[in-house]
Amino acid sequence: PFQRSVLADLLEEDGLAILAKGLGLDQIFIQFLKFFVTTTSTLAAPDSPTLVLPLNVPKSERDYFIQELQRDKDVKKDRLPVILDSETHSSVRSEIYKTSKGVVFASSRILIVDLLSGTLPTKLISGFLIYSAHRLTDTCTETFILRVFRETNKTGFIKSFSESPQSFLYGFSQVEKVMKYSFVKKLYLYPRFRIDVADEISKHPPEVIELHQPMTEQMKIIQQSIIELMEACLKELKDGNQLDLEGLTVESGIFKSFDSLVQRQLEPIWHKVGPKTKQLVSDLRILRKLLNKLVRYDCVSYNRLLDTLTNNELGQYSTWLYLSAADRVFKSSKARVFIRKAVKDSPSSNPSSQSSNSSQGSSSSQRSQNSEDSDDIEMIDINSQVPKPVQPVLNPANKPGGKPTIKRNHRLVLQENPKWTLFLQTLTEIENEIP
Predict the structure, then answer these.
(1) 384-389 long-range CB contacts below 8 Å, 24 or more apart?
(2) Cβ pair 78, 29 in contact under 8 A
(3) What percent of the chain has pLDDT over 70?
(4) Global model pTM greater than 0.85
């Protein structure tokens, strides 16, 4: 398969391998680790230990790699990768560096400290395996480690891997920069349309099953209202600026960086546009965010997000707040969390009762008025009414450590996101089909 060609190409000559997402970079990286823990590397000097250091590997990925190596029958237990953390003393680390014949996982902070202090001589290092190379920057610790290593060790190998080709599209010469940070000169590309990759994928075509889950009525109202607001902002943006937005509608830009495309067209004249135009571009970004989070967040988190964005990121030129569609968004969002109950009038609000008690004076009238409003301001403990997972977000304004509260004339709804019902049904179906 094509994964063997990736392994062979990088073993032959150092370079940066960029794979399309989903082509099994994890399995390729595991094969490299297996190669260095089961065999003596021919890339290092004959008399030097085979010390291979993976870089930029998250803890979750590291544990997964080690677990897969433990399951492999060809890997002996005494040759499994060694993990060094902050609790490992420097003298112990120095001894491991000198006697290790395989892979050593250590954090970037530990490695740079040991390299600069001399605890880890560069002559003992056979090479580095860089995971998620697209994350390298000019000022990151991993780049500093590679620079220190390459200055004194000219024979060690450096092999970089990335499964995020879209990360190289941002900025200028991003591929060249990452190769420079990695100190490699050759680039290996493995897109899905490559012949060996396409042939391998065609042998095992995936079975695709589409599941459709309709939204609730309140979610449909929110979605339609946000689209209406985006159209209004876009129309106002076109009226005030000379933009070529033909063919670019809100419906076609829901799943794209719609606000980025608009801002890109405004970039040549960005220094000339007024604050109203800039606010419209910012409003488009906020509305797209609200639209995307509608199907991802639960009702409480979404209502809090809506309040946070509108309170902190909207300016005086955000005229869409005064449209009827915006009012529907706020009302429907709150309706998914709670609804107001009708408050019965207190006896003191009866005209006959007020006339019979008029002789009690203004102080008595003031107490009666406070009694009327007590239903609106009285706060009760809702620990017995709300499930614990949603308690912390019911009233973010409460002081830390306090109990979440809600007004007595509000009844909690806590509308469930419909996608979880569909997800549960799918899991149940899968469980029933598996023997």
Answers:
(1) 385/412, 386/412, 386/414, 387/414
(2) no
(3) 75
(4) no
